[in-house]
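Box S1 | Example of a co-folding query
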Amino acid sequence: MDYLFIDEGQVRIKIPQYEKVSSKAPVFYNPTMELNRDLSVAALSVHRQRSEKDIAICDAFGGSGIRGIRYSKEIKGVSRAVVNDLNPMAVEITHENIENNGLTNVNVCRKDANLLLRTCKGKFDVVDIDPFGTPAPYVESAASSLKAKGLICVTATDTSALCGTYKKPCIRKYGSKPLRNEYCHETGIRILAGFLCRTFSKYKKFLKFQFSHSTEHYMRLYALVGKGAENTDKSLQNLGYIAYCPKCLNRHVFKGLTPLIPVKCQECGELWNISGPLWTGKIQDSDFILSMINTVPDLNLNTKKNVLKLLKKCHEESDAPPTFYDLHVICKKLKTSAPPLDSTINLIKNEGYPVYKTHFNHNGIKTDAPLPLIEEIILKINKDSQ
Ligand SMILES: C[S@@+](CC[C@H](N)C(=O)[O-])C[C@H]1O[C@@H](n2cnc3c(N)ncnc32)[C@H](O)[C@@H]1O
Ligand SMILES: [Zn+2]
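Box S1 (continued) | Returned holo structure for S-adenosylmethionine
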């Protein structure tokens, strides 16, 4: 068998040569996920800095071991990392990669991730769920195993379900109705976040989302675990629905599990399209992301520029309301050309409304300003520039 050597962060990893990135490769490795791993190293570094003691990490879907190996090499204060994978060849190469990187605090395991997490209750401060496709079948085991103050990190690559291209799989896996529209990636992340919260709540645990992003073909969430029935009940009040008008682009957040949602859009009378239940609360924590931004210069990351670019965008939108308007979609409705984004944002701000850009879409505008006002501003800019 031929092998490849991959240099990421501070490690060198050996993997069997593969023809294309696929779950059928002898050992899975996806180079486009380097940004995801770099961000993870930054997030876990901040989590360790905020913990009172060294942390134990479970990389439940290890592949070549690159994640767990990077965590233990690049983060100061990792007592132990467990790298797990069902694939025997992945386990074999992970052993080799650990040795070649001179690590003594990484253990390797070959179990079904659910079995491992259920049998290691309370042993890990961080659990990383990075499976093929949906993380849904593994979240409950992670919920049962993580202690209060632990960190859960979850990747989902089934974005076609979460974003509403395929509704039924989303309903089956997450018990939630997606909606395919201009902000469908945010809806997808909120469906995943809501599913995580509902699953953790069975164990009287709640989640505080620290950092969330939708990038290329995947979504990734980082959340701190809290414990207690009362706080869990309070946190569940953030579940709700988002109603969207496909005709006038109006949208409205309805909080609660059984809110009274009018059938029609209040602006134009069209029937609402509704997504949910989903998480309507915060999905970014500005302090956590700022700490990540401050930590990045001390890390050895190949994707540092892109890491900082994404973190700054997520930091900027951390206090913004759910959903965003896509300037181009509004302009299509108005049958006018799109004015510069920054001028539009400045004029909305001049009217006294906070406005935020968003990492979800470079034409996105997050604001509580009424849609008719935004439209008026767009038309005015276009008229003045004639
Ligand atoms: C997306 S890959 C992991 C990639 C890796 N975390 C990385 O960053 O390169 C998913 C891995 O999960 C493994 N796997 C699939 N089902 C599993 C299960 N039920 N329990 C444990 N591992 C599993 C696969 O063999 C594969 O290596
Ligand atoms: Zn409407």
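The first strand starts at residue 3 and ends at 8. The CA atoms of residues 244 and 377 lie 22 Å apart.
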